[in-house]
């Protein structure tokens, strides 16, 4: 089923529904193909490659013997996988959950955090009221409120962790908010409707500023009306690195954490009684050998259907390629204001980075442009080893048009890269126990969980979704009953999602 997709920010755009509608025209065979493994030679992103120390864990655990036995295997080392490890470390703390330490192993196909989290736009902006009206209409007021609550919780938890641990400078945290430009009256009207519905439902929207065209022009430059909402930007890879290191430091007699990068999981099979590691349920195969475990967390986002083929197709998780450039702004121009920006209802998003020593003008990280790529909006493209020149052309034109020729036309970006997002028909992630999503059969998947499919808007959602998966696992290990937190949308749960499928 193709649901009406709520408009999202950051690559979840007003065109999302058109994109999904376009998907219908793709041949059925193509729709059902599972995602490939992450490509071997991805484009280089600013976050992973702009400085030699950007990714100290890049090849951690990629040489030497592979761990052969674990309690929990997390597949994927992006914000989802590392948040799972972080929450397990926090939950275990000093308590004994099993008789022996709880052994957690993270398996990553490429370098550490080299998926979407290492290649995104860097915005951590909760959508307090965006898409509220669509969600309210589609899922009811309570669910629309929970969407907002989950995003606020994620963003504030991450900012609290960053500030409490003194990481703000290390992750380049900027709390300048987000200016969302309206290019058309229709966009402004739709946003006003969302705002009013959310306010009426009791969501706190007191800090939202409505800015007239004159106010925006005077303060920022572009001749459009806008709203300003709260939000942050940061260096996602550095945050994820610190979260991992924090979890690793919790290693104790109760908890053990290992990371193996450059170790793609190629298949998952059930272990047989002859297998040496008694008690393990699954064997994960990798080119470096296999590892046994009793629980698995799929934190593979766009690539989830590679190991879970029933998630292939329009009602599962659709790999979708996004593109970003790092381009130098002209001196004294409005993009130098240290806030984030969204335009075209999330089709384009950008922010000027803080000036580094020796820099005279900031580097602007700008993503989007998929609307120029043709009717399929890069849906079903799972290759981040190349860029789309048409999207690149659109991105190069964008800022000079919005900021009246500055940066100058013809400025070549300093870096350009792609990353693969995991799109879903409703825009919502899949969170919870794994099933065969085509048949509903669950027996073959006991002990497997997933948190994936953020539809281009994962930074303010993944950390809390990981928290919920960890709550479920801890409840299972301790023989207690998991109950859904009040801030968690019911429709994100895998169980609720089964009925949305064909
Ligand atoms: C270009 C772009 C711009 C974006 N901009 C923003 C933004 O500004 N703000 C925002 O909120 N969101 C943004 N997003 C979305 C956001 O980046 C994602 O929602 C989020 O990073 C998802 O995190 P994740 O950990 O679930 O997935 P990922 O970061 O993709 O991590 C999944 C990991 O799993 C690994 N993996 C996959 N299969 C296997 C396997 N079989 N074995 C082992 N490892 C495997 C991958 O290599 C990858 O490292 C953007 C995404 C892209 C691509």
TrEMBL record:
A UniProt-annotated Pfam family: DAO
- Quote the InterPro entries the UniProt record gives: FAD-dep_OxRdtase (IPR006076), FAD/NAD-bd_sf (IPR036188)
Q: Choose one Gene Ontology CC annotation of this protein and give it.
A: cytoplasm
> Residue spans with biased composition (Polar residues)?
40-53
The superkingdom listed in its UniProt entry is Eukaryota
Q: Which residues cross the membrane?
A: none
Q: Which segments constitute the FAD dependent oxidoreductase domain?
A: 71-472
Annotated spans, Disordered: 36-61
Which named protein is this?
FAD dependent oxidoreductase domain-containing protein
Name the source organism.
Answer: Pisolithus microcarpus 441
């Amino acid at each position: 089923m193709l649901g009406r997709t709520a408009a999202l920010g950051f690559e979840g755009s007003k065109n999302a529904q058109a994109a999904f509608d376009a998907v219908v025209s793709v041949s059925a065979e193509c729709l059902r193909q599972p995602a490939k493994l992450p490509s071997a030679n991805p484009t280089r992103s600013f976050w992973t490659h702009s400085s030699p120390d950007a990714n100290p864990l890049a090849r951690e655990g990629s040489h030497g013997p592979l761990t052969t036995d674990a309690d929990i295997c997390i597949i994927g080392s992006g914000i989802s996988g590392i948040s799972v490890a972080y929450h397990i470390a926090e939950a275990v703390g000093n308590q004994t959950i099993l008789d022996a330490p709880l052994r957690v192993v993270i398996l990553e196909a490429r370098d550490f955090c080299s998926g979407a989290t290492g290649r995104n736009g860097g915005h951590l902006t909760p959508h307090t009221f965006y898409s509220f009206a669509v969600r309210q209409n589609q899922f009811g007021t309570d669910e629309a409120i929970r969407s907002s609550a989950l995003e606020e919780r994620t963003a504030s938890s991450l900012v609290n962790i960053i500030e409490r641990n003194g990481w703000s400078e290390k992750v380049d945290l900027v709390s300048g908010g987000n200016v969302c430009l309206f290019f058309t009256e229709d966009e402004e009207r739709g946003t006003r409707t969302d705002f009013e519905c959310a306010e009426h439902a009791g969501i706190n929207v007191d800090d939202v500023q409505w800015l007239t065209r004159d106010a925006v022009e005077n303060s920022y430059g572009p001749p459009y009306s806008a709203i300003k909402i709260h939000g942050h930007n940061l260096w996602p890879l550095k945050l994820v690195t610190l979260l991992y290191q924090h979890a690793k430091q919790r290693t104790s007699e109760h908890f053990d954490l290992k990371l193996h990068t450059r170790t793609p999981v190629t298949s998952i099979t059930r272990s047989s009684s002859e297998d040496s590691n008694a008690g393990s349920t699954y064997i994960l195969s990798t080119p470096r050998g296999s590892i046994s475990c009793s629980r698995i967390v799929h934190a593979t986002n766009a690539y989830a259907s590679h190991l879970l083929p029933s998630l292939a197709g329009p009602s599962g998780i659709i790999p979708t390629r996004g593109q970003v450039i790092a381009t130098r702004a002209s001196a004294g121009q409005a993009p130098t204001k240290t806030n984030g920006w969204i335009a075209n209802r999330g089709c384009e998003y950008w922010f000027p980075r803080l000036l580094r020593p020796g820099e005279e003008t900031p580097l602007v990280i700008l993503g989007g442009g998929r609307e120029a790529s043709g009717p399929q909006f890069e849906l079903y493209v799972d290759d981040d080893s190349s860029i789309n020149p048409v999207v690149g052309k659109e991105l190069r034109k964008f800022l000079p048009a919005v900021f009246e020729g500055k940066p100058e036309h013809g400025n070549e970006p300093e870096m350009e890269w792609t990353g693969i997002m995991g799109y879903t028909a409703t825009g919502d992630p899949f969170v919870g126990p794994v099933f065969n999503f085509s048949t509903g059969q669950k027996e073959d998947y006991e002990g497997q969980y997933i948190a994936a499919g953020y539809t281009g808007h994962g930074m303010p959602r993944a950390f809390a979704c990981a928290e919920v998966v960890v709550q479920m696992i801890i409840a299972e290990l301790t023989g207690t009953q998991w109950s859904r937190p009040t801030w968690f949308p019911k429709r994100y749960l895998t169980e609720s999602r089964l009925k949305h499928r064909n």
